Structure formats: C-alpha cells, structure tokens
Amino acid sequence: MRPRPGLQDVVLVDDGDGDDQGGDSPVAESDGADAGRARRFVRRWRWPVAGVVVLALVSAGVVASRRDAARLADLAGVPGILAPLDGRVRELWTTADFPFPTISDLGGVLVGATYDMVAFADPQVRGVEARTGEELWSMPLGGQPGGSRCVPAAGPVAGPRQAVLVCVVVDAVEDAVEEGAAGSSPGETTWRRPTRVHLAVLDPRTGRVLREQPAAPDDWLVAFGTDVVRTSAGEGGTDVTRLDPRTGEAVWTSHHPADSGELVQSGYAVTDGDGLLVSAGSRAWLLSSTGELVDEWEVATDDGWSLFQAGGHVLRAEYASNASGLVLTDLVTGVRITPPEGSSPWPGVDDGSMPGVLFTSGLGLAAWDLGTGERRWQREGAATGAVDGAFVLDGAVYTVGDGVVSALDGASGKELWTVRTGLSGPYDLATDGRSLLVLGSASGSATSTVRALDLTDGRLQWDAPLTHPMQSLEVSAGHLFAQTDEGVFVALG
C-alpha cells in the first residue's frame, strides 16, 4: 500500500530500563554507557519536572488569589469601601427619597430611614431591592424628619439569629418653641419634640414587626455586630447597654456617673475597633466589647468640642482661643496638633493601614505623627492642590483635586504616580479595593462620568458616562451611588 501524501512514519522511543529498541542515535551509542543513561534520565524526568514547575506556578497563583480574597474580606468591614465591582458601572435605578447614609444591606435588601425634607413629612423606614430599587415594604416612624434612627443587627438571612433592623418609633410629640430665633416671632413653633417612643425590631425582608420594647426619647442606638448598643440617661449618669434585639435581653450594662451638678444625658456612642467610644456631658469613655471601662477623659471646653477617631487614636477637636483654626488633642497621649488655618482632619475612607498618623487637608495635604505631634510631611501645589476627595488604602494616600489624581506614600508623602484626568469638576473619589473610581465631567459634556484607574499606576481601566451631572459619589453598605445637586440619588452597579 502506498503511503498517503503528507503522512510521516512515527517512531516510538522506549525510555524504560529495558533494552534499547533503536531509540538512541549512533552518536549516543558512541558516547558510552554513562552518556546513554544520562540521556534516558533527562528524557524520563523532563515532563515530571515541567509538571512540578507548572504546579508551583499554579500554587503561587492560588496563594495570591487567597491573599487577595482575604484582603477584600477585611476591606468589606471598612465603612465607605465598595463591594468588589465586576467591571464598568452602569445606572441601575434613581430615587429622590433615599436613606443615605444610614442604609444597610441585609440579605440583598437595602433598609433604612428616609426623610422627605422638601415636604417635611414624617420619616419612613423602607426596604428596597438592591438591584432594582423596587420598594418591598415601608412603615412610618413618626416624629421629626431626620430625627429617627434605625440600626442593623447582623446575622443570617433567616433563622433564630437572623439579621434584624431596630428602629426608634415615635408615639407622641409636643411642639417645641425656640425663643429669639432669627426671623421668628415669640411663641412660634419650630419643631416637634418626641415625648414617647418605643423600639421596633423588624424583619428586613418583609418589614414585619418581630417584637417591640420600651425606650426613652433621648436614647441613642448604634449597631454592634449581631447586637445593638443603647445609651440612655440612668440614675445619676449614663447607662450603656448591649442588647440582643431578638430577645430584648441585656448582654451587659455599664453605668457612668455624671459630674456633680451636671445635667444627666443619654450620651452618644460610636464603635471603636472592637469596643465603643461613648460621650455624655463633659466626659467620654472607651469601653471594651464586654462593657469594661478601658479609659475615660474630661473632654469639655469653653469654646465647644467634638470627638473623632484617626490613626487608631481618639482625638478632641476644639477651636483655638484666637479663633484662627482648630486645636487637635490626642486624648490618650495628650499630644496637641495645630494644623494651619483653613486645614482640618479630612473624613475620608481609612482602612487602618497608617496607624498613629493623622491626615489633614485644606489647600494642601499633610500627615501628622500622633505620637509626637510633629508634621511628617506636607504636599502642596498642582499635584495635590485643593483636595476634593482623599482616602487611605494599603499604606497609600489617594487624592483628587483640580482634575489631578495622585497616589502618595502614606509614610513619606513621596509621589507614587500622578494622572491628569482632563476632567472638570465636581470631583470625587471612591474605591472597591481593586480600582480607584474618579467622578468628573469630560470635556464638552454636560453630564458626569465615572472612570476606573489602576491603583498601582493610575492606568485607565474603563470609563462609564452617566446621564446626569453629579455632585458626589456616595458609598453606603458596600453600594455605590451618585448624587445630583437636586438631591437625586442614582444607584450604580
């Protein structure tokens, strides 16, 4: 039989330990037995070694993937950071009645209190489907618009330990009069003060009331993992109680006496790492997750004050005696920092990767050492100019201002990269931990656009034009929204 054109004979080579069946060339035979064995060894182990190399590369990729997944999981707990995006964002739905910034995502349902400040109507608590904006349920909260509060208690979607929403519901109000208010006449009613309230525990998927319990009008609520914490005016001081809202049982209660002659107040609480920062009257307390007192301070000043957290520290902000700016005091160390006039701590997203450092912004950006009070570095000029948005991520500081996006080393202020976007304002920044999202308007466009830049070099990843001119990007419960100057919110995803 004649061979088919294009086909060649295939010679099989036996690399085994048996007799050679012609697989070695005459040259190989002339090299001697040792050379023949060496060639057979190389042929025998060529593919296993290649397999080991491939396995090592795959293993390295798996390790890197797991490391990235762990990093993103950690960032999921940082307020103001988006859930990871799959790609270019698009407009999902629009609302003029939105509960930002107090929404929570409980099982794919966005829940929170909404306020119609134009009609000055009673507030509502609503549940909407996160992807479509469809309202699933609503319930009136009563009281003053902006005065009600709902907080989540984390948990699974269903079951005895399910996630729930805890709301203050106003049952009765009285007219409150502010004498001597500008433009008012004596006896003019300016707002409605709650006189009787209760707590309602809701199923976030349906709005069904699971239980109710008493509360006082001045009580304050804050989410605390699977529970909630309530501060209230107790006997001669402030009571801080950690509650399981599903059962109404107190996990613990911590009592803090008021100073002699001072008005007893319910207090204000925010989370501080695994614990709580509580302030009432002239004092503040730092509590552990089990209610134990970690530290306390006298915080009141004659010219007014506020507390905030930065670099893992608790600081007090007060106006300087000459009213030229702020004086910042670390409550733990007593270190004082006086930023230049016009500068203040910026409330940008902070993943905690720069402990012991305070960042201030104004006409420029500066980093301050909270251990010494000394300025570590300051950046001014076109690259950082007036900062319209900034945040700290993985030890770097990302800023936008005057159409320039910069990445700076958080420890030294050294420029890592700078990109001139060509966009006009308003500007804003957001991140999902993998990309930098920049809001601005392209040349010749009356609407805004969102651009994604690579965190490592500022390289453009994608561009998403929007159908409205936007003022800001807002991140709540891991979701991205853009806000117009009329107060309309557009959900992006």
From TrEMBL:
- Where is this chain compositionally biased, Low complexity type? 1-11
Domain Pyrrolo-quinoline quinone repeat, first and last residues per copy: 362-476
Query: Transmembrane segments in this chain: where?
Result: 47-65
> A Pfam family for this UniProt protein?
PQQ_2
Map out region (Disordered) in residue numbers: 1-33
Q: Give the record's keywords alphabetically.
A: Membrane, Transmembrane, Transmembrane helix
Q: Which domain of life is it from?
A: Bacteria
**Database matches in Gene3D superfamilies:** YVTN repeat-like/Quinoprotein amine dehydrogenase (2.130.10.10)
Compositionally biased tracts (Acidic residues): 12-22
Q: Which PANTHER family match?
A: CELL SURFACE PROTEIN, OUTER MEMBRANE PROTEIN ASSEMBLY FACTOR BAMB
Protein name (record): Pyrrolo-quinoline quinone repeat domain-containing protein
